[in-house]
Amino acid sequence: MANQFEVVVIGSGPAGYVAAIKAAQLGKKTAIIEKWVKDDGKTTWGGTCLNVGCIPSKALLQSSEMFAESAHGFEDHGIQIKSPKIDVAKMLERKDGIVNQLTTGVAGLLKGNGVTSFEGKGKLKSGKVVEVTKNDGSVEEIQAENVILAMGSIPVEIPPTPTDGDIIVDSTGALEFNEVPKRLGVIGAGVIGLELGSVWKRLGSDVVVLEAMDTFLAAADGAIAKDAFKSFTKKQGLDIRLGARVTGSEIKGKEVEVTYQDSEGEKKETFDKLVVAVGRRPYTEGCLSDDSGVKLDERGFIFVDDQCRTTVPGVYAVGDVVRGPMLAHKGSEEGIMVAEIIAGHNAQMNYDAIPNVIYTHPEIAWVGKTEEELKSEGVDYKAGAFPFAAIGRAMAAGDTQGQVKILADAKTDRVLGMHIFGLGASEMIAQGVIALEFASSAEDLQLTCFAHPTLSEAVHEAALAVDNMAIHKVNRKKR
Fold first, then answer.
1. Residue 78: CB partners within 8 Å, gap ≥ 6?
2. Is residue 455 annotated as involved in ligand binding?
3. Cα(421)–Cα(205) distance, rounded to whole angstroms?
4. What confidence tens digit (pLDDT) does each residue in 267-286 have?
5. H and E: helices and strands count for the chain
6. Cβ of 300: how many Cβ atoms within 10 Å?
7. Total Cβ atoms within 10 A of residue 193
8. Is 272 annotated as a binding residue?
């Protein structure tokens, strides 16, 4: 067979393209396959994250934050601006420009590293043969020594609210509104729902978030989630309704009537736009032949071991199609690990040190165990927290919401988790990741010199607070 490669990657998202580049850097003859085609008919690289996920949503979050600041925050600084207006078309144009720059950059990186690119849909067949159905309908086969499955994920749809691409949309559609909807409904108070709801709320929408669970951000530390809920609802005006299970919807002209059930019974709410953000599921449809040998678990994820090996020797799976959090950085690290393993190196990944971030304002970030998890596991721990309200840099920035919380083992002092709600949380959480990666103790952080004035001083003070030694707050009395 003419097309023979040592490594073939299906999917060019953060898991796939990183795996392909790393494999090529390690001297392997590598190919990558991508089926995503833009409206202009050209293939685009980078997967969901770069095209309709992480990057475009952050571009809109930044624009909406600047608009909100100019409308409500500048006066405290002595800056006078009369009634700022949002040009939605220009905002979307900026977002699209950033996306184009990054996706074009990925294509350049693949080419620059000698990765052969195939445009079309990849399908794994038996014997590690990969079938590529090109956009013109023609079919080509590639023989691989090793295959990396990195097809990513797609939004989950729910029967009560089928998307129509106009009134009822998924997360992709919520990035493309050509005007600010007056009444916006969001189903799901998870990462995507909160981020997208925040964008349009700041731009002027009346936003109602319907969340089926009774607990807000159950995966986050309870104290952090409580702080965040109070901020989003009381200060920012997001109408977040917990325990609200959507049971139906009906499009009436240019609006949609949503029916949901809560503790008080059945209720209805009417919106101009409705965003369905109830999660994502692995995308494997048409990507695995019946005789490929690759097995799926009961939830539809590709079954893999701790080093991302599937049930077929020489076939690996990474990113959103396998167990674990659906995070771009998790997928990228898995891609690097697998490329290293294929090259004969003994590579491992520390799944206990993967950071989680929600890019609301303020941001929410955490790594490691929550206090609730430690309690349920019977771990003897100690905790320290410090508010941004006592941090000079936060005061100067005019943003003192939230806190840093650190959890450590009561006997060994080893850091078990770090949780942040506040300005710059997405950047500061890396300090917690490094602490977990190097098995640091709370004392290690206590003895570290942090620059002043910085937001990161809250990390230092929280570490000191673990042992009731915080400097810039009164410590609780020891029992």
1. none
2. no
3. 24
4. 999 999 999 999 999 999 99
5. 12, 21
6. 12
7. 25
8. no
The CB-side HSE value for 444 (13 A sphere, CA atoms) comes to 15
Provide the whole-model pTM.
0.96
- The reply, when asked if residue 368 is annotated as ligand binding, is no
- pLDDT tens digits for 219-249? 999 999 999 999 999 999 999 999 999 999 9
The answer to whether the bond into 160 is cis (omega within 30° of 0) is: no
Query: Which secondary-structure segment (H or E) carries 60?
Result: helix 54-68
Residue whose pair of structure tokens reads 């795996």 in the numeric block: 19
Encoding tokens for residue 168? 């009822």
Show which residues are catalytic: 452
Q: CA nearest 155: which of 167, 166, 170? A: 170
CB atoms within 10 A of CB 40: 6
Instruction: Please name the residues in contact with 153: beta carbons below 8 A apart, sequence gap of 6 or more.
Output: 48, 280, 281, 282, 283, 320, 321, 326
Query: Helix 14-25 to helix 88-112 angle, to the nearest 10 degrees?
Result: 30
Residue 235: closest CA among 91, 73, 74, 391? 73
Residue whose pair of structure tokens reads 């409500």 in the numeric block: 72
Angle between helices 425-437 and 457-465 (to 10 degrees): 50
405 by DSSP, 3-state: which? strand
Domains and CATH numbers, the chain: 4-155+281-349 (3.50.50.60), 168-278 (3.50.50.60), 353-465 (3.30.390.30)
Coil, strand or helix at 138:
coil
194 in a labelled binding site: yes
> Directed axis angle between helix 191-202 and helix 54-68, to 10°?
40
* Alpha-carbon distances of 277 from 118, 170, 190, 396, 459, rounded to whole Å: 32, 6, 8, 35, 32
Mapped onto helix, strand or coil, the DSSP state of residue 421 is: strand
